[in-house]
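User: Quick sanity check before I run a bigger batch. Here is a single chain. Can you write out its predicted 3D structure?
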Amino acid sequence: MCGELTSVVMVNLCFKCRRFGHSKTNCRGTLTCARCAVAGHESTGCTAVEKCVNCQGNHTSFSRSCPTWELEKEVVTTKFKNNISFPEARRLVKAQTPIEGKRYASVVDKNHPVYQTTLCPNCHNVVTMSNFPSNSKSPQPVSIASSSVIANENISPKPSSKTSKYPTASQDSSGFQIVKNKKKSKASSKSPSVNNNQVKPETASKFWKKSPSQTPFSAPVTAHPKSNQNKPYQNETTSGKAVNLHSDSSRGNSSDSESELSVTSGLSQIDFPAKLKKSAHKNSVALGLADEGLVHKDLPSIFSGLPQIPDLQLHPSEEDEDLQMNCEVSASPTCETFLSSNNPLKLRGYNSVRKDAATGSNHSGGVCILTSNLYPSTPLTLHTSLQAVAVQVHVRTLVTVCSVYLPPQDVISQQDLDTLVDQLPTPFILLGDFNGHSALWGSDVTNSRGRQIERFISNNCLCLLNNDEKTYFHEPTRTFHSLDLAICSPALMPLLNFSVGCDLHNSDHFPLIVSYADSGGAIQYPPRYLFQRADWEKFLQLADVTESMVCTADITEAVQNVVDCIINAANNSIPKCSPRLKKFRRPWWNEACRDSRREEKKQWNIFRRYPTTENHVAFKRAKALARRIRRRNQRESWINFISSITSSISSKQLWEKVKAANGIYREISFPVLNTGNATHSAPLDIANTLGHAFAQVSAHDSYSSDFRTIKNRAERTPLRFTARSALPYNSEFRMFEFQKALSLAHDTSPGPDGITYNMLRHLNTTSLSHLLFLFNRIWTEQKYPSQWHEAIVIPILKPGKDPSNPLHYRPIALTSCLCKTFEIMVNARLIFELEKQGCIPPLLSGPSRAHLL
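Assistant: Done. Predicted structure follows.
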């Protein structure tokens, strides 16, 4: 049995929007009927008249007789025959396919006077009939610049059909003059044809101001937009206005332009390192503050796809460690999070404010802002139907940061945008994916969403921080576009710098970085001593407390001498940690991950400079290899971590590992405090407000009148410390009491002097004897050192309380370890004497010896 072998070409057709070129999983369009081309319902049971979505013909969208299907079939055949990518195959097929109304044969009309020749009666040369005057009235001639390649060809453009995307200069082909060998200007080489009111990106103002007498902004019309754009459904067909095909850039302003631009000078831009990653959902966007600025970040990729698993806690991946290493993020607005209310959001070191898009099982859209715990911040409540959230963050001043996502398929009301801005306290920064194209921010064409954003900026007197940088990479067509915008109040314009990151980091959006023009000082932690690396022998020699230090007349001066001696010895023998912010490094990140990541960056840089198919394949191969190495190391690290939980470890280590596995940790953030009508956001104002609140709680006026009466009566009674006989608890302290107090003390944070219990335990015997002599002087002379009156107060928020109320915090005081050691010695004597005299009931366990500390 024999038969003919035929090849089957599988055309890529989306079963959701019924268009060619993509699949249903990557579709961002709306559900469309395959029979009647009406959005909103399935084709099952539809009895309407057949209509194609692609060509508007009288057939179904999946018909094999569709011209668009034939074109897509040719694209697929060319792709596999030549072993090239789909964008290259599409460009090749479109270049070979004549456009309707643009074929050479259709434009040559021998009956037209411009192509009829005759002999000139004066010079006897062959000339065209159009050079002779005519009595008939004709339209104004339009000059067409001709290159040297087609200098000898006579081509007259005809009116385009309804389906043509390019507007024509005139509906009548008469009156054309062929201009040969005319040199093109630089402006015309970049844009084939533009109208007179075209706004050029390099000269467009970032500050729009509209007077009341002006009419609404007139959008630019482009005659030849690019065929392959980032999001094809956003490109509009410009029609209804004749476009002058003359490409001379020296033409003046158009009389149609009724908008007025006022330009303000900006500051120089600075490139900041940033990064972004990609999840299974494309077109996700994010932002944040690097070096006290904002970096756009992709939220789903932060957690490596984990938001799809509601039962798992979300943890950042290794690529966010790069972001934290490269920039100090105070606020990270994130658009298109793809999260639902069932997905928990937990990122260490950040507080989150989010708004999820309720779209059923497909969680598209959604916005979120991650604010660093190092900067005081408070969320704002917005009354809007848009996908937007806002917070107030204190960086240099209190700035409102708003994250917005405008879906491309939704119709956004201009009133909604204006209402959103009215709710934002000034100054503010508006960041997000607006899905609009405009020449104002570097796009090649302008669509309706772009004109709407232009009117929004103009009507509210806002400033656009974007330049002409591309913020989005469309992988199927390997093209770059500008979709993400940074808009701010006029007061912030001269203070901010704007830049776009150069690396995608597995995403399709580049990070936007907004930072202050002056670098300023970065936040630093107080350095701590690293006792595991201490040189105790050197410390023992340097920390020599002599007798002359403790025998000065003033006890306060003697205590200061001891503190200076011990601190100087510690600084010379014990290293300190870096004051920089702590990096939460991943335990599975190793040299293999670092090398694969470096190779991925290298291949991306090559592809970005030379976007060829070979470089694109090399980049995707390096990205897949890096992802495979990371996943393998994550799996092995998790197995080793679980295997370390055995019966031989202590209970403390066991619970530490269990908490680490579940992501349980305690974090302290800076709140924005509210006292009456005042708001305190600066760190110094917050500290003073909390200190004033703590002082009010323990002030004399806070007690009741009955208690104040008893207190005043008791304070008027003089205290007598003299006794007729020498009591043992009044005697001087001995060395064994001092050593026992040091052994009972737990390692805690030091007080203002910086001395720890670990330093006191490593003093030599002579230094301990002299220190004991100082304690006895304080005990016998009854003089308390002034340094011990100072303490570092840490506010701890009470459970379930409002963080903006300063009265909802509990103060924790860190006093000097020298003072606390002396307190332990005194407390031990008092407890012993009270138990000896029977003053403490046996059932009372609070002040027993087991609770001395």
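DSSP finds 20 helices and 23 strands in the chain.

User: Great, the batch can go ahead then.
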